[in-house]
Design a protein that fits this description.
The protein is an all-alpha fold. Helices cover 86% and strands 0% of the residues. The longest helix is centred in the middle third of the chain and has 38 residues.
Length: 195
């Protein structure tokens, strides 16, 4: 059991860091492209094209850049979550009525204040939908990172169990992951409805 908690803590830490980075970078890209129509027309098709690439093909490159360990898992989880968060944020920002933004400018609000006081609250439902999808994909990315190039974490534990044909451990880990992911996803859905 002590060994299990070491793996669980490792996965939780890697996933939390990956999700925070995915949200921060995704929101940054989303607001930048959502506010700049020309930049969006150039870069959004590229985002969609990158999103369609199977991320597992990028894993060897990430291993070369970050090496084995926590940073590679975090990076792999992050790249899974960024693009859906960015795409939903772009749509959310674009769907905000322009009159709100113009009113903010007339009232003397700066760009940062317009984002925080007008765009973020108005686009929140779509942003939250993107975060829910990004959450799931980031978790998958983190676990895949642990499965292929890690010495610790639930993904590593699962690959070991598969290699040893330990059916009980495979079922237990799968059940645990489903319960944790399902619970957190339900919480995000509840928060989404509240927003």
């Amino acid at each position: 059991t002590d060994q299990f908690w070491v793996h669980f803590t490792e996965t939780a830490e890697a996933f939390s860091l990956a999700l925070l980075l995915a949200i921060a970078i995704g929101l940054g890209i989303g607001f930048t492209l959502g506010l700049n129509r020309l930049l969006s027309e150039v870069l959004e098709p590229m985002l969609v094209a990158i999103y369609s690439i199977p991320k597992i093909t990028l894993y060897p490159i990430l291993l070369l850049i970050f090496g084995l360990g926590m940073s590679a898992k975090v990076a792999f989880g992050t790249i899974h979550g960024i693009i859906p968060i960015a795409l939903f944020t772009i749509n959310g920002v674009r769907n905000v009525k322009r009159v709100y933004i113009q009113t903010g400018k007339v009232m003397g609000l700066g760009q940062a204040e317009i984002i925080m006081r007008i765009l973020l609250p108005a686009a929140m439902p779509e942003i939250f939908a993107g975060i829910r999808i990004g959450f799931s994909l980031t978790l998958i990315g983190t676990l895949l990172g642990e499965m292929f190039a890690s010495q610790r974490g639930l993904g590593f534990l699962l690959m070991n169990a598969i290699g040893l044909h330990n059916i009980e451990l495979i079922v237990a880990l799968t059940f645990l992951l489903v319960v944790v992911a399902g619970s957190l996803s339900s919480l995000l859905l509840y928060l989404n409805r509240r927003f």
